[in-house]
Specification:
Layout: H1 16-33, E1 40-42, H2 53-63, H3 78-92, E2 102-105, H4 108-119, E3 125-130, H5 134-142, E4 146-151, H6 162-167, E5 173-179, H7 191-204, E6 207-211, E7 235-240, E8 253-256, H8 259-269, H9 278-288, H10 292-316, E9 319-320, E10 328-332, H11 345-357, E11 359-363, E12 374-378, H12 383-399
Parallel strand pairs: 1-11, 3-4, 3-5, 5-6, 6-7
Antiparallel strand pairs: 2-8, 7-8, 9-10, 10-12, 11-12
Length: 400
């Protein structure tokens, strides 16, 4: 390079799964040359199911029409915003003004950076859960904010310890990230929890941003932070079609909240893209119309998968919550596991399974210090694939 990169990039590394997927591709090429089956990847949470048929028909029908391939409105077509508002009303009991309180996103991951760019100045402080989605930290760092981790631990049900939060030095804290059902923990929200979170933010003048893409997965009572009376005044919520509708690669999400917040986010977003492909918007409308039977069928499959993932955890001697929600099973490793200096137990086991058993399981350290002794299994693989992974782990355990 003839110039150095911006200093803000020094605080972040390439995304873990970007690095790991490249490594797995290299290992698979070597395995193929040896006549071996490929690695079973139980890492990232990318749903493998098919989106709603109505969504597939909509995108196919619209894509062949004239006049749909140009730039689109930065706010999305009115029909999409109305569909998003109707979805929030039907499933969460939250009333949103589709003209001013919803902003479609190119996936909620985009929203994390957009919101950070919109509301954080260099030096502002951000409360980030540990363990939690790594992008909360990296997005904060890229806008030169200061990350303040708050602990989530199993003993507290993987929910915030409000006594500990109140005891922290909150001067300069401007924003707080929350996520339930939690990734990677699978901890569910309750109405009482959301009331406490909204109250905490209101009293301390901290903007709460709730990342809510897992609320329908292995969870019969989806909840929204915005259902708390008055929450829209101090809270934003992101949501997504990626998990609940098997549309991860389509990159369709949303952020909802009071109109003043949405207007500020739009100012930034309108500088970064030129609207969502119109056929995708019509597909999203159809997906959002799905009734409870869609989620029942989806969760029947994920619950079958979770049983096998639990069996893998059992073979590895890991403790996990069989009643957790979301797309993952999160397991604590026995303290008897020995590791090399500087490597966490989860990382040690993950690397061993990858190279010796041909199974990739995510090490918990990537989600924060409180994940060091944990591993995470994605449920985004069919039961037969999970059963094959179980067989490989059993074989590895016997040979070990």
């Amino acid at each position: 390079m003839i110039i150095p990169p911006a200093r803000r990039t020094e605080s972040v590394k390439e995304y873990f799964f970007s690095i790991k997927n490249r490594e797995i591709a290299k290992l698979n090429a070597e395995r193929k040359a040896r006549g071996e089956e490929p690695i079973i990847n139980l890492g990232i949470g990318s749903p493998d199911g098919t989106p709603p048929r109505a969504a597939l028909r909509a995108v196919a029908d619209m894509a062949v029409k004239d006049g749909v391939h140009g730039y689109q409105s930065y706010t999305g077509i009115p029909e999409l915003r109305q569909a998003m508002a109707d979805w929030y009303d039907r499933y969460y009991g939250v009333e949103l003004d589709p003209s001013s309180e919803i902003q479609p996103l190119t996936g909620s991951k985009e929203g994390i950076l957009l919101i950070s760019m919109t509301f954080l100045n260099a030096g502002d402080k951000v409360l980030v859960p540990d363990p939690g989605y790594p992008t909360y930290t990296s997005a904060s760092q890229m806008v030169e904010a200061e990350v303040i981790k708050y602990d989530l631990v199993a003993e507290n049900g993987w929910t915030p310890d409000f006594d500990a939060l109140e005891a922290m030095d909150l001067r300069g804290v401007k924003m707080m990230w929350t996520n339930f059902p939690g990734m990677p923990t699978g901890a569910r929200a309750t109405r009482e929890l959301y009331e406490k979170i909204a109250d905490f933010g209101r009293r301390h003048k901290i903007l709460i941003v709730n990342d809510n893409p897992y609320s329908f997965i292995r969870n019969d009572e989806p909840l929204s932070l915005l259902a708390v009376p008055g929450a829209k005044k101090g809270c934003l919520e992101m949501n997504s079609l990626s998990k609940a509708h098997n549309m991860a690669g389509w990159r369709i999400g949303m952020v909802a909240g009071e109109a003043d917040y949405i207007r500020e986010i739009l100012k930034v977003k309108s500088q970064m893209d030129s609207g969502m492909f119109k056929p995708l918007q019509y597909a999203a409308i159809e997906a959002l119309k799905q009734g409870p039977e869609w989620f029942d069928k989806l969760n029947d499959e994920y619950r079958r998968r979770a049983v096998v993932a639990g069996e893998i955890m059992d073979v590895l001697g890991a403790e996990y919550d069989p009643d957790s929600a979301g797309l993952f099973v999160f397991g604590k490793l026995p303290t008897s596991i020995l590791v090399n200096e500087g490597i966490t137990p989860g990382e040690e086991l993950s690397e061993t399974l990858l190279h010796e058993a041909g199974v990739f399981i995510t090490p918990g350290f990537i989600f924060g210090h409180n994940g060091n002794n944990y591993i995470r299994i994605s449920l985004c693989a069919p039961v037969p694939v999970l059963e094959k992974a179980l067989e490989r782990v059993i074989r590895w355990r016997r040979n070990g």
